[in-house]
UniProtKB/TrEMBL annotation:
Family per record: Belongs to the transketolase family. DXPS subfamily.
Protein name in the entry: 1-deoxy-D-xylulose-5-phosphate synthase
Keywords: Isoprene biosynthesis, Magnesium, Metal-binding, Thiamine biosynthesis, Thiamine pyrophosphate, Transferase
Chemical reaction(s) catalysed: D-glyceraldehyde 3-phosphate + pyruvate + H(+) = 1-deoxy-D-xylulose 5-phosphate + CO2
Annotated organism of origin: Ruminococcus difficilis
Length: 622
């Protein structure tokens, strides 16, 4: 495709200059480009395909960057990026040094607020709107939030507060009935009921009459409405939950009908109260495979556009976790699984089908998930909360207050631990160890291999007590070293025990350490490796063993502050260790998007860097 219109869009002003026919063509070109670029770079396909018309309409009606659009999660902002001067860079999206897959203020003045985690948009937009009010700035602030993200508690905290704001504040609710999987919960049912209710259809007829009296762009809105296919069903109907919260509800409007959308947006612009516009869209719109199975195309790696098939589909830790949990649930009726809207990503699809009664998708509500699981635990169940490391950050107080302090037995399956690659800084799993390390009496396992994960999960459920985390990275396991039989649950040591240097690590970095030892060996040196699997509490025997080495080098794929390495050193100090001790961890910085391989390399965690670092150290101290 030549992208005849899209390639000429330098800013939203160019969108405003297009005719209705050109707008249709623009939407087609955007969809084509989205499929093209995501099939190569990976990314959030279904969500972006669903908001093409909505994004174009917003840039027709509002004046960005003076008006601020705050995207919730931000995974649906690719069209916005293309319409705001970044079309020519879109092929770099999610690539190292290229555009981010999420809104970034440092990337463009059109990105009003950074995101990546869900349910923040209403609070952020409200803050922006209040700041504008204080500065006498009359521009609009718009939060665009999906129905899935509206299951997150923070969204309600924002709504509860927003009703007091008076002007130029708009929430656009993009309702596609989907989170990543089918959306869950009472709010999802409530939104369907708004779409289905007979009163709503009656209301629609009444609305046109009411609106015919309101002038818009010199013409009565009613006239505009008559021309539009499905009409805009907006009126100040005072009985939705949103109205009760102080936001005027408008909608629902067909989110793929450009004329309806623009009419609706122009109408909410006139609202004297904060407004909520309910837009109904189809996730995956315009790409057959994504329309039929939007969950599988929510976040994808590269794929074949013609067949929809992923380019690579190796077995990963999440799948192993899910299989093992099913097996354990079969043997013990107390085992249950909790997810915060991440059923597919965390490998719980089969569990959700096989053990429906013991599977709980609570929506994008990690705080609730932790406390809910704690409730299950104190009443005799064996809950496992499967959660991405980065999203566990949401439930930190709950881990301390609701789980640990009352010694509830909760197992966390901490997925995507370590660097995650192309999603970048908002999604890196680099904080969980520091967070969990600080909580008294917590047990943490960080296996390197699939069998280690299975082992750790079984021990965590049936032998350990209190808060227990089993953490594992995105993707698959590495090649096992020669002579490997089974991963130990506590620690193991391999290589030359007479070597001067001991390299300690855990998790997938062990693969790099094994390769580093080979490099060192080829260069005539010797290296011994200690691999920890249980990283909290650290085994005293491991510390004793390590204290016999004159030089210790600890590599840790996590934050330096609160690290296992720091705790290990404290324990060595207690043994009066007098050798040299060096730590390579993530030092006080956020890690940007790049492939996992390149990220590990940039952080000094790849085999070459490890070997170099160990040898440099030997030269310095030798
Ligand atoms: C706190 C948090 N938990 C989980 C996620 C993972 N996640 C990203 S998008 C998404 C679904 C969002 O659904 P919705 O807001 O309806 O947007 P849609 O993709 O349907 O357009 C989830 C669960 C996240 N980004 N943040
Ligand atoms: C936007 C979001 O938070 C999720 O969609 C996330 O990007 C999924 O990541 P994975 O691809 O690792 O499942
Ligand atoms: Mg949705």
């Amino acid at each position: 495709m030549s992208y005849e219109i899209l390639s000429k869009i330098e800013s939203p002003a160019d969108v405003k200059a297009l005719s209705a026919e050109q707008l249709d063509q623009l939407c087609d070109e955007i969809r084509e480009k989205l499929i093209d670029v995501v099939s190569v770079n990976g990314g959030h396909l279904s969500s972006n395909l669903g908001v093409v018309e909505l994004t174009v309409a917003m840039h027709r009606v509002f004046d960005c960057p003076a008006d601020s659009i705050v995207f919730d999660v931000g995974h649906q902002s690719y069209t916005h990026k293309m319409l705001t001067g970044r079309y020519h860079e879109i092929d770099t999206i999610r690539r190292e040094g290229g555009l981010s897959g999420f809104p970034k203020r440092c990337e463009s003045e059109y990105d009003a607020f950074n995101a990546g985690h869900a349910s923040t948009s209403i609070s952020a937009a409200l803050g922006i709107a209040k700041a504008k009010l204080l500065a006498g700035d009359p521009s609009y602030t718009i939060a665009v939030i999906g129905d899935g993200s509206l299951t997150g508690g923070m969204a309600y905290e924002g709504l509860n507060n927003a009703g007091q704001h008076k002007k130029n504040f708009i929430v656009i609710l993009n309702d596609n009935r989907m989170s990543i999987s089918r959306n869950v919960g009472a709010m999802a049912r409530y939104l369907s009921s708004i779409r289905m209710q007979p009163w709503y259809r009656r209301l629609k007829r009444g609305t046109e009459h009411t609106l015919s009296k309101i002038p818009l762009l010199g013409r009565p809105i009613g006239n505009l409405l008559k021309r539009s296919k499905s009409k805009v069903k907006h009126v100040m109907y005072r009985h939705t939950i949103f109205d009760k919260l102080g936001l005027s509800y408008y909608g629902p409007v067909d989110g793929h009908n450009m004329e309806d959308l623009m009419n609706a947006l122009n109408t909410v612009k006139q609202s004297k109260d904060p407004a909520l516009l309910h837009v109904v869209t189809k996730k995956g719109k315009g790409y057959k495979y994504a329309e039929d199975d939007s969950a599988s195309y929510h976040g994808v790696g590269s794929f074949n556009v013609d067949t929809g098939e992923p380019i690579s589909s190796d077995k990963n830790f999440s799948a192993v976790f899910g299989e093992k949990l099913c097996e354990l649930a079969e043997t013990d009726q107390r085992v249950c699984a909790v997810t915060a809207a991440m059923r597919t990503g965390t490998g719980l699809m089969d569990f959700s089908k096989q053990y429906r009664d013991r599977f709980f998708d609570v929506g994008i509500a990690e705080e609730h998930a932790v406390t809910f699981a704690a409730g299950l635990a104190v009443n005799g169940m064996l809950p496992v909360f499967a959660v991405y490391s980065t999203f566990l950050q949401r439930g930190y107080d709950q881990l301390i207050h609701d789980v640990s302090m009352q010694n509830a037995h909760l197992v966390l399956g901490v997925d995507r631990a370590g660097v995650v690659g192309e999603d970048g800084e908002t999604h890196q799993g680099l904080f969980d160890v520091s967070m969990l390390n600080a909580i008294p009496d917590t047990t943490i396992y960080s296996p390197c291999y699939f069998d280690g994960l299975e082992n750790a999960l079984t021990t965590a459920l049936f032998e350990d007590k209190g808060l227990v985390a089993v953490r594992y990275p995105r993707g698959g396991e590495g090649k096992k070293p020669e002579g490997y039989s089974r991963e130990n649950i506590d620690y193991e040591i391999c290589g030359d025990r007479d070597a001067d240097t001991l390299l300690i690590t855990y998790g997938r970095l062990f693969n790099e350490a094994v390769a580093a030892r080979q490099i060192v060996k080829e260069q005539g040196g010797e290296l011994c490796i200690m691999k920890l699997c249980r990283i909290k509490p650290i085994d005293e025997r491991a510390v004793k063993l390590a204290s016999g080495f004159p030089k210790i080098h600890f590599f840790e794929e996590g934050m330096r502050s609160g690290s296992v390495a720091d705790r290990f050193r404290d324990m060595l100090d207690l043994q009066n260790y007098s050798g040299s001790y060096r730590v390579c961890a993530v030092d006080d910085a956020y890690v940007q998007h790049a492939s996992v391989k390149n990220s590990l390399q940039a952080l000094g965690f790849d085999a070459q860097s490890m070997a170099r670092s160990v040898q440099q150290r030997e030269e310095v101290s030798g």
